[in-house]
Design goal:
The protein is built from 17 helices and 24 strands. By secondary structure, the protein is of the alpha/beta class. Strand 16 (473-480) and strand 17 (483-490) form a beta hairpin. Helix 9 crosses helix 11. The radius of gyration is 26 Å and the shape is globular.
Length: 643
Amino acid sequence: MSDPLWFKKAVIYELHVKTFQDSDGDGIGDFRGLIDRLSYFTDLGVTALWLLPFYPSPLRDDGYDIADYFAVNPSYGTLEDFHTLLDLAHERGLRIISELVLNHTSDQNAWFQRARRAPKGSPERDFYVWSDDPRKYRDARIIFKDFEASNWTWDPLAKAYYWHRFYYHQPDLNFDNPLVHSELLRAIDFWLAMGVDGVRLDAIPYLYEREGTNCENLPETHAFIRKLRAHIDAKFSDRMLLAEANQWPEDAVQYFGKGDECHMEFHFPLMPRMFMALQMEDRFPVIDILEQTPAIPENCQWAIFLRNHDELTLEMVTDEERDYMYRVYADDPRARINLGIRRRLAPLLGNNRRKIELINSLLFSLPGTPIIYYGDEIGMGDNFYLGDRNGVRTPMQWSPDRNAGFSKANPQQLYLPTIIDPEYHYESVNVENQQRNVSSLFWWMRRLLRVREKVKALSGGTIEFLHPENAKVLAYVRRLDEETVLVVANLSRFSQLVELDLAAYAGMVPEELFGHAHFPEIKQTPTVLTLGPHGFYWLALRPAPTTNVVEVDWTPPELALSANWTNALWRRLEWEVLPGYVSTRRWFGSKERILRELKIVQNVPIGTEESAARLLVVETAFTDGLPESYLLPVAFADENTTA
C-alpha cells in the first residue's frame, strides 16, 4: 500500500544492531539476531525501526565514522542478511530507517586516504576541506568541547590542516566539490533501491563553511537538501528524510523548507524542557517552547523523543537552564558529557514509575512522531563509568540468563558489559520478566501504544493549550476531524485539583481512553478534575449518548493490503476490524460490557494454500471481569464472492 505520509502515523524504535541480539556467539549483535526478534516489535506496537550506522567503520564514534558507504560492517553480518531483514520487516508492516552521515567520514575512508595523498588543488584532494591557517572559520563553535580544542587538525602527509566539526578522526567532506554530491547521491540510491524506507541525515546543519559565519544553517546547505530531496522524489516513492538539526525552532524549521527539503526533523529543544517541566512542577517550559515553534508544511512532521543514543543534549537551552538541569539530573559530574547528560530515561527520573509513565504520556500525546530508545520500554539502567556515551549503549536485557539473554558468548567477550547495578540488574529488569507481569512497564507501554494507534487525533491532530490557574497541571486538546482528545497531566509529586474551561465542548462526555470510564457531562461552568501525584488523563470528548440500544449495523473498513496472511494484516485485524465487528454480532455474549482489547491468540490454516481460510482464536478483554475467547473463521473474498 502506497502511503507517502506513513511517517506521520509511525512509532519509531531506535536501536544499534550490535546492541540487540547476538546470533553467532561472538558477543556482538547482528542482523540475524535482529531478525529473530522482529516479533518483539510488533508485540510492543512500534511501526518503524531506526537502525544506527551499520557500515564498515573503525568504530571510534560508534559507527558514525564511516569507512565505506556501500557495505555493512562484517561484525553485523552481510548485505544478504540486511536484505533478509528488510524483507521480513516489511512483511510484518515494519518500516526500516537507516543513517546517512553526510557531513563527515572516518579518516580511514578510502576517500580521505586518497585525498591526503593527492596533489594540492586536485579534485581528489578537494574532497575534504583543507587550510594552511587553523584560524580560518574562527566563528564556528566547537561541538565536542570535552574532546577537541579546535575544528582543525594537522595532517603530516598532506602537510595541511583539515576541517572537522566533531572528532579529529572525522574529517568533513567538501560540499563545494560536485564530486562529493555525486558520491553521496550514489550512496543513498544504493540503500533506497534496496528497500530502505527512510534515511536519517546526521549533522545536517554543518555541510558548508563560509568565512564570517558560524558555519551552520547556511543557504548552500538548504540548496543541497532540496537537490537531494528532488533526486529521491524523482526515483523513489514513499521514502522519508529525517534531519538531525540540533537548532532553535526558528532555525530548525528551515530544514522542512516549503515541504521540499526534509520530511521530518527532531525537535531537540522540546526534549530537555519536558524534563525541566517535570522537575520544576510547572508547565511553562513545554508551552513556551511549543509556542515558539513555527508552523510546518502539511506534508512534514516533527520527531520527538525523550532519550537517544547520545546524551540528553542541553545545547538548545540557556546557560541558566543548563546549570539547573545539571544540578537536578546530573549531580555526579561523571554523568555529564559535552553539553549534556549521559543517562538513560529510568536513571534520569530516579526509576520513579509514575514519572516514567507521565513523561511517556506527554511523548505520545504531543504533536510529532514519537521515538523510543531501545530498552527504555522496560526501564533499563546505564553505566556512565564505561566512558564516552557507551553507558547508554549496553546489551539489550532479554532474560535473567547469562549475558541477559543477549549472547551465548563468554561475558568478557561482549562488546560492552551488561548492567549489573542492583537497581537495574538484568536478572530483574528484562523483557522475559516483564512480559509475564501484566503490571510491568513493558505492558503499560504496550497498552499506551495501542491506545495511541486507535486515536488518530494524537498522531495527526491540532493542539490547543489550556491555561488553568494551577500551573502544575499541563492540559491541552488534540483535534482531528470529528475526534477530540483532552490530555491533562499533573507535573507535581503531590495530588492536584484543576478547573478547566471546557465550555466550548459543553454537552460532550469525557471517556477515559484506557479503562473507558465515563466522566460527568461537560457543562458551561468549569470542569473540575483531581489528579494523583504525576497522574494524567487521556479523555476522548464524545457526544452524550442518546440511547442504550446496541448498534447492530456494521460497515467494515477498507484495508488496502495484498491478499495474503501477513503480520501486517493480523495487526490491522486486531486493531481496526475485529473490535467493531465482534461487538455487533448476535453471538457476542458481553454486549453490555466495555471491550478494552482484542487479541488474536492463535490462527489455524484451513487448507494447504498460502491464502487458505483461517480459524482464529480471539480473546476479548474487558474493563471488568474475566476475558472471553471466541472461534472465528476468516477468509479472503473478492468482488465476485457472494455471502
